[in-house]
Amino acid sequence: MIMELHEELSASTVAWERVRDLYEAKSASILHRYGPGPRVHYHTGFVDDLDLPTTPAGLRACLVESQERMLRYAADVWQLGKFCTRNWLDVGCGLGGASIFMAQEFGAHLTAITIAPSHIELISRFARQAGVESLVKPIVCEAAAVPGRSRFDAAFAIESSSLFAREPWFRCLARVMRAGSRVFVFDCFLVRSEYEAPFNRHWCAQIGTESEYVDSARAAGFFLAAREDTSLRTATFWKTSAALIRAEVEETQPDPVKLPAIEESCLTHEVMRRGLLEGGLRQLNLTFIKAN
Hints:
By secondary structure, the chain is of the alpha/beta class. The protein has one domain (2-290): Rossmann fold. The chain has helices spanning 2-10, 16-34, 56-77, 97-106, 118-130, 166-176, 196-203, 210-219, 231-252, 259-278; strands at residues 87-91, 109-114, 136-140, 152-158, 177-190, 222-229, 281-290. The protein has a seven-stranded mixed beta sheet with strand order 3-2-1-4-5-7-6, sandwiched between helices. It starts with a helix and ends with a strand.
């Protein structure tokens, strides 16, 4: 077992330390933007109302509502309520928002993995506030190093899979998932190469193509069972988040030293919106099933 874990770790193409440090540093801003909790999400959502608020507080509330709307929609599409057994894995759980959502809504037992040690205390506190402390178990772990065999009935990667190499991840899933189990991936996928660098640079990521995921999954014994394109619904999220950045600048008048980083963030959010609208990026909801 130890040898297998070391092999999976050595296959990673992105230094996990960089990703860990980035998301450790982001915790405060995530809480400010998407808190206060107990369900704190760090992923895109569905902003269906085009008449956006103008204040930072209103825009933040709009984004949080959109994230919850996306989760409820995905849960319906994934038919999570029909699962007979509910021992689930949340890969790259952030501050645990999706894990707490699934525990509250479906009574599921969630193993929530993160590579940011400081998130453990936050997730535990939020789960306790939500009354699901016994159902949500956060652990510090890399995506390709989850321990055990045939433990889980479902796994979720909600805008986290672009942060780690897909081949070792799917090999790990093949080991820890039960036969017939499902892997649900909601993420942004690369279509045109000009979007790769800005995406990877901003999120310390390694965005992949849909075919890369399908090929990696197939090699590990999974097949693609369902595919949905939600690009148009998520594009408005990035318009809203860019509007929030601009509104925050107007409200707080930040230190000029911070303005270049703020501008870069705003431009990246605009790039995301344009890519999703023009077809250079695709926001996809993929379901994989383990064959045996």
